[in-house]
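assembly run, all chains below
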Amino acid sequence: MAVPLDKLVISVYNEERKSKEQYPALHPRWIKNVQFICYQAPPLDVEDKVFANEWKERADFIIRDLHWLLKQPHDKFWCQVIFDKSLHRCIDSYLKFAPRCFDVVYNLPDDLQKIESEIYRLVYMVCVRMATHKESKVDTVILVNGSTSVDIHCSLSASPRYVSMTKQKHFITPEEFGKILYENYIFDIPRLMDLAALYGTNHTGDQGNKPLLTKMITNIFTQQPNYGNDLAEAIPTILQIFQNISITCGVMTNIAGQTPQKLDQANIIPLVSMETKQFQDVIFYLSDTLYTIWIFLDVYPPACNTFVQKDFIIKLASLYDSLFPALIGVMKEREWSCNSYYNMVMDKLRLAQLHVLKIFRQVISFNYLDPLLDAGSEEEAGSHVEGYVHFMSGVLAEKWFLCHLNHLYPFRDDRDLLMQSRYPIDETRLQFILDAINEAAATCGWQMKSAADAV
Amino acid sequence: MALPRLTGAIRAFGNIADSELLEADVSGDIGRKRRVCADEESAQGLTWKHLSTTVLRLGEKDNQVVTKELRNLISTARDIEAQTVLKLGAEIGLCFPYHIITSVQIDKQRCSDGATVRALCCKSPGCEFGSGSFHCLWVGTETEFSEVEAGAALLFSIFKDTETVTKAHSLHIQRIFGPFPSSAATKACKITNHIVNMLPDKTLELLNVNSSANEDDRAEFGENLHFSQRRVEPPREDELSWLDFPNGDNSEPLFSMKY
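ok done. output:
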């Protein structure tokens, strides 16, 4: 019978003390001093040979070490993952600093691009393995008669190597796996979001790495429910980020706190005269924040349950109407060094806008619309319908948001779906929402378009 | 400079990430990595003692010639290591470049991680960098000489089967020593070839040592997993123009070339 790695004990014969000593298979004693090094983003100026060579050297070390790590047997891999802080730093630095698909495109020469692509793959594979508590048919340590102990001979000073002898399934007890991940910070919420941002992007023609990534993240949340609590704890931080961006832009909002925040006008630089670099950073930050939330929800839809808390999506709609018209207006007022720079920043801003709409829709769909027709009872269907109406009613004051949302996801389709449910909804409530959308369109001078025109 | 990211803010303010990693210091990590690689190669590879005794015992020609070439190899290894020392000094915040001082002024320093710096430093009062500044220089001590020997043995291992310095050789040397002058590698290659030519056939087999070939032959996790490298280009601005706010200022942007 196979023994889980977390229960496996290894007996070591200490030749100096002439005695047998026992150590768990998961013990810092078994790690190798690798000194994984941190990743840095590729140099922006690839013509600078000094920086390019330094980056290549750093990348070369990372590639070699990650190949080595992935070749380790199950037990050695997990010892290194749990006890080697330098590995944590290496993976964390990659997830933090690796370029995203929406980042300014690096025109890397072929040799640097090849290296970057290799690290991109290796970090993914390491994370896949770290999110897997069961591996099959890989070489393993000697198991004697199914016992939980392994005998090896070594001296205390040397790190013993035990030889692979059998092939069998390797696993960690699911409960222990969840504990190991959480207590050793092998994954945390920012890392899971980084993983989604880096590897969750849909690919033309196929699903790319998303299906496996979804499995990984689902397994992590399933085995360790505390990650769900951590995600809920991240919500106020995210709201605070939006609040801070609004303050920087001189826009009054009430996103993060209970009371409206007064703006200290003396300390606010008008957007139109803000330094280009600072203005660009605001747009990039906003764009990254909204994209990351959306792709995380796309890769791991159950997180939508958390994003209905604290009226997150209603506040997002409020942000949409207060912040984006100001930013778009200023984009046109500011002076730009060239057309392509303007277009690049504008692309980012438009994408940020688009992702607000997508986040709202994703949360509403997952929680209320998708499960509506499968609801087993009128009561269950009623809770979904009421949830939908609550959130749509909460954003009726946000005129631009309503116009753009309706353009992308026409309300009439939702209304048809709601009318088909088991729950006998009062049609006048849906008409009230529709009237508000029409009124918003009239107020904004918005031409209603068909959904086919939308992206 | 790092781009502003949502996950960076959650790491810093969310209280749900590993706070130990917030201020990961990358300065000097390459230096530490090189030392680990050098130690590993030394532990697994050919030792200077084994090399020199074997070569002196089996060398076909005059031992004086062999001894001279072994010395030359040591000297070349020292040249390469000296470059590393300067690099190491710069990485841990010591001044660069070094200046020559007398042994009286020598003061040993330690890296932030507790490892002894292989450079020796001075606190010269007339130093152009001012009082209290440390200058690195290469001064051989017993410990450091053993490191040079290990480096020389490594150079011999690298070049014993080749007559030219390839890119792979350079990368191997750089991984252990850091940046180095290519002329030193060429010189080490020539000296090694000269030593090899003075040895009888099959002597090289005696100098072959176990490597980590077994580890390299192992299957790698993920080899059979589907992985997609393609990344999607985000939609262009004109595809999203419907997201405009038509009541706002629709005037064309002003462009200037003054930036």
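Chain B touches chain A through 70 residues (CB under 8 Å).

The first strand of chain B starts at residue 106 and ends at 110.

not gonna interpret more than that til we talk
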